[in-house]
Predict the 3D structure of the following.
Amino acid sequence: MLSWLMNLYRPWTAAAVVVASPSAVDVIRAHMNGSGIDATVVTQDEPTGMLDAVRIGCETARAWRPDRVWVTWCDQIAVQPETLDRLAHAETDTALTLPVVRRDAPYIHFDRDASSRIVAVRQRREGQPMPDRGESDMGVFSMSADAAFDRLPAFAGTAGPDGNTGERNFLPFIPWLARTSRVATVEATDPIEAIGVNTPAELAEVEAWLTSR
């Protein structure tokens, strides 16, 4: 999965950071070293949530002085090049840009105001009420240098653990940032891109779809 993602993102990225748990870091480093893919592997020592994982990755990337930082969850292997190309073309002059999908029984849903600005995010995993059909992220985000290296730490300094999981989630950063900065969305190519591979059933569904393409 990691090798697949590294090759998928290669046309749009110059360097990669993989944030791993302590129990997996050695095997991931060994895999990256043996794959011929240049990636820096760092550790998230405590499982406090994706907000802290993204911050660790961004702090590692800061030394490279990039114009943008892209973030993906490593289980999102169904993401299509067409979607990433739209993301790259839409990220200019935005603090954050992300692909979205509209789907039934969403796991994540963004609430928008009358001007279409994202004002809140609902997460099923945190026990929040969800609409029958909603607008979800797909685990892919493009941040400006200011958003990644300055605004994200500012948000993290005020964010506490969420709801059921007790984790510090990354997604609430999006409506927080949208209050003062430009956040844009692009449409995904296919709703299946939002499926993360976490179960054998999800693996089979994504594998069949990728094979069909």
